[in-house]
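@channel sequence for tomorrow's demo:
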Amino acid sequence: MKKKHHTYMWQEVRGEPTFRIQTDDPRIIKKLSRRKEVKLTAFGMNNPIRIFIITFSKNYNAKRSFIRLTGNKLKNDPVAEGFQAATCEDIKSNGGRK
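structure tokens (generated this afternoon):
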């Protein structure tokens, strides 16, 4: 069985170097929590969602970093003017990770 997680990134203000990353993927949450330049700005109380803020010098660097972070291709999200990526994690039938 696979559990699907979603990760989104959008530019806070168009033309500014500040981006937000929203995810419910525990692996990505762990990676972002270890980075000094990333700050946690919001989290879900009854849900594993986390929203982080990070600064990039160029949009290209933000896209490239997001691809490396998620390990997937980007999909444009025209409504939020951002990007999204879906990640899957294999789960054993007994509830443990593969």
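heads up for whoever presents: The first strand starts at residue 2 and ends at 11.
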